[in-house]
Amino acid sequence: FGNDADRSIQAIRTIRAIWTIRTIQTIRTLRGIRINRAIRHIRINRAIRHVRINRAIRHIRTNRAIRYIRINRYIRINRAIRGIPIQQGSERPMQHNPPSSARYPTVLITRERKRCEEFCAVLEQADIPVIAAPVLDIHPLLSSSEWRTYAQDIEQYDGYLITSAESVRSFLKPLLQSCEAARIDEDSIAKRLLSERLYCVGQETARACAALGLSPALIPSTQDASGLLSAIAQQGPQHNKRYLFAGSSEARDTLPIGLSALGATVVRLAVYTIVPVALPPTLRSLLLCGDIVRVALNSPSQLDALLADLGVEPHTLPKELRFAAIGPTTAAALEQRGISPWVVSPQPSMRVYGEAVCDTIHKEHKPNRISPID
Questions:
Q1: In this structure, are residues 364 and 132 in contact, taking their beta carbons and an 8 Å threshold?
Q2: What's the pLDDT tens digit per position in 103-161?
Q3: How far, CA to CA in Å, does 337 sit from each of 72, 314, 331?
Q4: Is 190 helix (H, G, I), strand (E, B) or coil?
């Protein structure tokens, strides 16, 4: 039996040795797997870190490119304002920080500077660059003899319909001067008669009247021709009443047709006409190239003149170009041409118009903040 016992002990020892070797191999295998996992984890973390760094670099480069474009646009527009010709490739980025106005788009208002001072002042106080360039010019139509005739017939009308500040300058001002020249305005009789019969639209028109010493008898709350028509209709029957509607030769027929339907007689007097004026070539190129992307319009005729001067159809305008309207009539003209109004002023006032444009630009151009990358 001794030999059999020795053999059993040896077999057990052999089995234990095999188990030990296998256990060691298993441990080594597990350790290798863990090491490989750790290496892969390190590599993945490095790859993620590399992606984040590349994203940050691209973000920085994008911001630099945007800043470079804005600076060059600011240079081009300022050169246009000063009348310096722009040569291709002549722009160089500034070595110092540009003015804060370079952050905002330049606004082109299609009117003479002296007739939109309040609008320009509001934008300039908010560091928004603005250019005033008229696309229409005003030409008077009446001679001095015709003014004397209207001065003598000043009592023949029950009401004078004035729908714009330009009508005040082109009609009421020369009318009062003719009254003074004909000595009809003694003791301010003409001013009192006009004030009692003066119906005007809008606060801008009312302020222009006040500058001449006139106080309009009626200023409707709805500041357009339809609002004035409704306000006059609420005053009572209009049969046998005579009104003088003084304005542009291109003025709309809302008041004459509406008052005639109420039984009144309306004499339409064209005291001035509107003639298109070409924009400077530099401004025209800036509009077509997309360097100026905001335009403030004051009438439908300005829109027609601008499109004719640019020589393009509305659908071919730069996609970045946006149009603001001083009121619902101009906004409707934009929509008829397939252009969605960017801003519509709540009141036909230069200051309110400027504030509406300024608020919209500030909302669109809030300071950009770089968000952390996960």
A1: no
A2: 788 899 998 888 889 999 999 998 888 999 999 888 888 877 777 777 777 788 888 99
A3: 32, 7, 10
A4: helix
**Global confidence as pTM:** 0.60
The C-alpha atoms of residue 347 and residue 271 are separated, in whole angstroms, by 25
Let me know: does 129 contact 80? Beta carbons within 8 Å.
no
Say how far apart CA 329 and CA 90 lie, in whole Å.
42
Q: Which two tokens stand for residue 106?
A: 């330049």
**Please, where are the H alpha helices in the chain?**
2-82, 117-125, 144-152, 165-167, 173-181, 189-196, 203-211, 225-233, 254-261, 281-289, 300-310, 328-336, 350-364
Structure letter (DSSP) for residue 157 = -
Tens of pLDDT, residue by residue over 25-84, are 888 888 888 888 888 888 888 888 888 888 888 888 777 777 666 666 666 666 555 554
How do 343-344 and 294-297 pair as beta strands?
A: unpaired
Question: What distance in Å separates the CA atoms of residue 63 and residue 76, rounded to the nearest whole number?
Answer: 20
At residue 339's C-alpha, the angle toward residues 333 and 345, to 5°, is: 60
